[in-house]
Amino acid sequence: MPLNRKYIPIVVTILLFIVMFTAGSFRYTGFFSLQVLMNLLVDNAFLLITAVGMSFVILSGGIDLSVGSVIALSTMVSASLVQQQGWPPAVVIPLVLLMGAVFGTAMGAIIHYFSIQPFIVTLAGMFLARGLCYVISIDTITIDNTFYTAMAQTRIPLPGGSFLSISAVIAILVVAVAIFTAHYTRFGRNVYALGGSEQSALLMGLPVARTKVLVYTLSGLCSALAGVVFTFYMLSGYGLHAVGFELDTIAAVVIGGTLLTGGVGYVLGTFFGVLIQGVIQTIISFEGTLSSWWTKIVIGLLLFIFILLQRVLSSRRLTLKE
Amino acid sequence: MSTQQPILQMTRIHKRFPGVKALTDVSLRLFPGEVHALMGENGAGKSTLIKVLTGVYSIDEGLVEMEGTAISMRSPQESQAAGISTVYQEVNLCPNLTVAENIFIGREPRRFGCIQWKQMNLRAAELLRERMNLHIDVTLPLQSYSVAVQQLVAIARALNISAKVLILDEPTSSLDQNEVDQLFRIMRKLQQEGLSILFVTHFLDQMYEISDRVTILRGGELVGEYMANELSRLDLVLKMIGKELHLLDELPTLAAQDKNSLGDELLRAEGLGRRGGIEPFDLAIRKGEVVGLAGLLGSGRTEAARLLFGADKPDFGQVILPSTGGGVHSPREAIGRRIAFCSENRKTEGIIGDLTVRENIILALQAKDGMFKTIPRKRQEELAGEYIRMLNINPPSPDQLIKNLSGGNQQKVLLARWLLTEPELFILDEPTRGIDIGAKAEIQKLVLTLSRQGMSFLFISSELEEVLRVSDRIAILRDRRKVKEISEKDMSQQQIMQAIAGG
């Protein structure tokens, strides 16, 4: 029973996803198919990638509000360089990823070395990145580069006639690498330790500074990658892309069972957190008559439930004696 | 032993903080295979010395040598690399990680950069079994275990870093007697294996029980280094406090003085209880009475106090104040009815580190008056000055930030804060924990003096002697249940011990 305890939030998340998917399957014809399931990944690839980065940040006890803006900036830089300057994607994409990582590193360094709350530093980062988009252009830049259109249109066939997009495959790879990183590398475990108690981590001789900064580097990198994937998806760069997206990301992580106070949670939980958001949207689109704002309402309610669940679980911390 | 080379030698260490000389010319020698006690009052410089040794603070002057070679310690990593491991008073591990991880994190067994969980869990279980005699599931989060177990895990971690010197900073302050015995058994075992242990403690008995030698500090200076078995208790205390010995002698007689003039019943708990906290109990406190609450750690002492103060909602029963007929349902209401509660967690629930002594003292009074009736600055200064004098707060400067004060003095500031509100009932939860003998005696004396002036106290302490000294009546808790209530004529350590042990 105590062993189950730390898995309760993630089990609840997975069950919730199964229940919602099952409910959808019974209610709507055509819902129960592999393609609907795959579409959850196809349509939410960029959310998944961003949420993975955010999971590490939240696990370390921080927060990153800049992710949405970094995505927008990435689409903007990609579009501008590829479309207007004619740079090859093979140069642009690594450059954009590097930009995201550097941006994250800078924020992480400010957070750590000046001991400023992550909330305010990444808020500043959010405004900065969003503002930079408009320096490039105030209008949408549409991309018709063949590489980008190919990436957008390529379907990877799966057995049973369904398919995945390249973006979805990238997202799945990111999740797999992240799960490995979180559980089987020192960096991953240090992130958990940092989220458990920064003071203790320091006194245990762990590399707190490096870990903390790297967490934001990782989040910046993930956001930039999500921006690249988002560019494949939208085939445009625009300063108003992914507005308020940081909040969707945080919601996905929390619904995935990660504690906002840090130290407790799983990347796999985040994966299902994203799928739950996706399944809500799918149900609403199948319903047809409902406004898409119902997605927000349901997510809002779910968030409340999950925060309460976490509260209940952490306040009833059981004490075992040997 | 004296012919041996010391494994660790600190020579003429100086450390200054802005406005404070924390360490002046302090030296320390540690020989292989000895348990060396480090003793001193609060503010004597023990914590600073430990932090210097562990690399948290850097020294201004002086030399630290490990096995004859000078070492520099600018960070906890460097200190660990030199073979010095520390287990702190508040267990500094990560509660959310598993026991095994807490032992190995930073040095996890890896293959191709991939952490070998199976191997780590096996090794952790083996380490705890072989060296700590502890049989627990190492895959559970650390927070599922008691503080005592966490403490042992912390030691296991320290040992695993192949330490030559182990520093135990007040390891026994939150352990019960059995747990202390277990810890001591392990310390002796480690000592035989050749490990040098620096043992920081406030408990005289424990020092004599386990230590070979003792270094005493006072006011940031070295008093001396002695063989434990050649130093009498009286000498030890004299060297530690340097003065005011009469305070200790005087105390046992104080409680015995006439306290027949107890007034009416002030507060009564009827069948008060909370699930998972404490089973329903009755308790009455009269005006001018000091009621002691004795029991082991985890016996429900704090839980009982929090219920009485309205800090937790009871599942059963109620608190009644016979004089007004009302009850207590929230801390706010309790304060309104002139009940004060000084929590055991001084750091997290009491002091506000970045405010000055004066501001900390004024806090509760200001809260009582409401935010719109600011207490004039001049009046604030008068009050602060008065209490600083009365409680002998050191340094006697009202504008010092409270975080710069020693534990004992912080506690006094907290007492002053509540005393200012002129409470009728003052609940003191472990008011003397982690503070030195001199301050302890002063606080005990204060309780007795005020109770004779008509203030009632609920006095919670894990030190039996202390409870006996100040209390008129003692309620004894065991396993989250009130088991006995004894008053004056039956009050003896033996009686209480029996009740606590369940004999």
TrEMBL record, chain A:
Residue ranges of the TM segments: 7-26, 46-79, 91-114, 120-142, 163-184, 213-235, 247-273, 293-313
Pfam families xref list: BPD_transp_2
Localization per record: Cell membrane
Membrane topology value: Multi-pass membrane protein
Entry keyword set: Cell membrane, Membrane, Sugar transport, Transmembrane, Transmembrane helix, Transport
NCBIfam families: PRK11618.1
Name of the featured protein: Simple sugar transport system permease protein
Native source organism of the sequence: Paenibacillus silagei
Automatic annotation (TrEMBL), chain B:
Ranges for domain ABC transporter: 8-244, 261-499
One Gene Ontology MF term: ATP binding
Entries under Gene3D superfamilies matching the protein: P-loop containing nucleotide triphosphate hydrolases
Organism encoding this protein: Paenibacillus silagei
Keywords per UniProt: ATP-binding, Nucleotide-binding, Repeat, Sugar transport, Transport
UniProt cross-references to InterPro entries, sorted A to Z: AAA+_ATPase, ABC_carbohydrate_import_ATPase, ABC_transporter-like_ATP-bd, ABC_transporter-like_CS, P-loop_NTPase
A Pfam family annotated for this UniProt entry: ABC_tran
Protein name: Simple sugar transport system ATP-binding protein
Top-level taxon: Bacteria
